[in-house]
Amino acid sequence: MSGARKAGLLELVRKTGVTGLFFLRLLRACIPALARPRLIVAQIYNAGARSLIIIMLSGLFTGMVLGLQGYDLLRRFGATEALGTAAAFSLLKELGPVLTALLFAGRAGTALTSEIGLMRATDQLTAMEVMAVDPMRYVAAPRFLGGLIAVPLLTAVFNVIGLYGAQLIGVQLMGVDHGIFWAQTQSALALKDVTEGIVKSVVFGAVVSLIAVNEGYHAEPTAAGVGMATTRTVVASSVMTLLLDYVLTAAFL
User: Fold this and answer.
1) Could you give the 3-state DSSP secondary structure of residue 122?
2) Cα(76)–Cα(96) distance, integer angstroms
3) pLDDT tens column, 115-163
4) Which of 20, 40, 105, 139 could form a disulfide with 237 if both were Cys (CB 3.0 to 4.6 A apart)?
5) Cα angle at 38 between 32 and 41, to 5 degrees?
6) pLDDT digits (tens, 9 = 90+) for 105-114
7) Domain count within the chain
């Protein structure tokens, strides 16, 4: 193994260990942070409510594309009545959790990283430590919990709007019967299918929030350092979301 590869491997192991230790500290800080629900609600608003527009628009257009592509595919097999089932399975089990996590990482995750990174660059976190105020409890934990709660809620909104978009194309444009569309969807879906989407959204929310908070907390206290931390948040969150999506899908199957 060359020196460059060995150094890269050691750096990966180091970053993994630092993130793991930070996650344990974060979990310990989450328990007392729950005693301050106002901080958590404020972060749910910042991370979740302010992401609603992009989530709803993306869900609508994703559902509309599913309606067009699904109808074209099912028409070849004479099974256009199953359009609702196909759209529901795609959204609830796969597209809803994954796309929501990616959009959340691009919008809210970068905001969390830059906000905490700026606090690090302006020595606000250091000042809190000097005053015996734990920044993990008052800064990192509420933002982590806010993201953890917001992502499943945003996923539910994405799924509902996406199903409406698929119904809009399938029923209103392509002429699929409205009753058959929803009846087949309800009869085909099982509790396991809904549970898979919920579990994925919770895991993705935890991972993306952890990466965003960790990168901001450990960002170099410079403008360039905050920018690099924001970039790392998007890249790492996207890769981990897709990797964990495969792992969780294989586990449920």
Assistant:
1) coil
2) 26
3) 999 998 888 888 988 888 888 988 999 999 999 999 999 999 999 999 9
4) 105
5) 105
6) 999 999 999 9
7) 1
Residue among 210, 219, 220 nearest 101 (CA):
210
Give the angle 51-46-61 at the CA atoms, nearest 5°: 5
Q: Is the dihedral of CA 130, 132, 135, 138 positive or negative?
A: negative
Q: Which residue has the tokens 């979301």?
A: 241
pTM of the predicted model as reported, rounded to 2 decimal places: 0.91
Containing domain of residue 47, as a range?
3-252
Structural contact between residues 29 and 130, judged by C-beta atoms closer than 8 angstroms: no
- Quote the CA–CA distance of 66 and 74 in Å, as a whole number: 11
User: Residue 106: what residue type?
Assistant: G
Residues 6+ apart with CB under 8 A from 234: 105, 106, 109, 110
Helix 37-47 × helix 141-167 angle, to 10°: 40
